[in-house]
Each structure stands twice: as C-alpha cells, then as structure tokens.
Design brief:
Layout: E1 14-19, E2 26-31, E3 36-41, H1 48-52, E4 58-62, H2 65-68, E5 74-77, E6 90-93, E7 101-105, E8 108-112, H3 114-117, E9 121-122, E10 125-126, H4 128-140, H5 145-148, H6 154-158
Parallel strand pairs: 4-10, 6-9
Antiparallel strand pairs: 1-2, 1-5, 2-3, 3-4, 6-7, 7-8
C-alpha cells in the first residue's frame, strides 16, 4: 500500500509557478511568511529570474491548498528575495460596526480611520483560483471582481436588506 505524500506548507523563499492557461501564460509567486505571497508578472520573460527582477504586481494571502495540492508547483528556492519583499498593511472593517476599522501589519493590529484604510486592501485569505483570476484580469487591464468585492463597505453592503 503506497502512502500519500505528506502535505507541506509553503516555505518562505520558495518560488511557485502559476499557470494561467494552456498557452503558457504564467505568473510567479514568492512565499513570504505564511500565508502571504508576492505575485510577479511572468509575461514576456525568458525565465523566473527575469520575472523576479520586476516589482511585485501585488501581495496576497493565499490558502495553502494552492501549494499542497500541486496546483502551484515550486520552481526554485530564493530565500534572499524575502527580506526585500514587504507586504503592505491591510485593513479590517468591523462587520457589526462598519465605521470601526483596524490596520493589520506584520501580525499587529491597530485602530484606524476610514481614510487610512481607503487605499489598502481588505485582510483576507484568497482561493488560488481567485488569485489566478486577478492576475489574468491585471494582464488584460480589467477590474477584478474579487478585489472589488473586498473594498470598504462592499462586504457590509451585501448584508443590507
């Protein structure tokens, strides 16, 4: 009887290939402190090294299954890249009192104003499929519906009668 391979969480510095279609459209993600990733544009590059020289397209927290399922395979290890990649802060909007906000940065939360939070993304852990949609939309110059659904008040407004 064969054993299933042990599931392994992404390790900081691992670089993952994100395949976006059958024609080779690609992006790359560098694992930061779990579950954060820095996502890089993989278009018009000859190899992963060239992609990692660019600025990240965005930072995002992603469910571990993107990696443990093999959906995003590891293509190399680059621990030296991690210190230079600092995920920006994100915001939390209280679901009971939507005028109450916090900023989450580096594992620490602090009270914040709506104005401080407006340029930030909502704290969320994304499905890998939604991250892939976001990359494809960015490549096509389109607004991403998943990102839009996480804007300030978007979650709260859905709950209103």
């Amino acid at each position: 009887m064969s054993q299933r391979p042990k599931r392994v969480r992404p390790q900081a510095g691992e670089v993952f290939k994100i395949s976006l279609d059958d024609d080779g459209l690609t992006a790359y993600a560098v694992a930061l402190k779990s579950p954060k990733f820095a996502v890089f544009d993989g278009r018009d590059v000859s190899d992963v090294e060239e992609a990692l020289k660019r600025h990240p397209m965005f930072y995002v927290s992603v469910m571990d299954r993107a990696v443990v399922s093999g959906r995003w395979p590891v293509v190399r290890m680059n621990p030296d890249a991690v210190p230079a990649l600092k995920a920006p802060p994100t915001f939390i909007q209280d679901p009971i009192n939507p005028e109450k906000f916090q900023i989450y940065e580096g594992g620490v939360m602090r009270p914040a104003t709506r104005t401080e939070c407006e340029p930030l993304e909502r704290t969320a852990v994304w499905d890998p499929e939604h991250v892939e949609d976001r990359i494809r939309d960015a490549y096509a110059g389109l607004e991403n519906r998943w990102l839009r659904s996480l804007q300030i008040d978007a979650v709260w407004l859905k709950r209103q009668p």
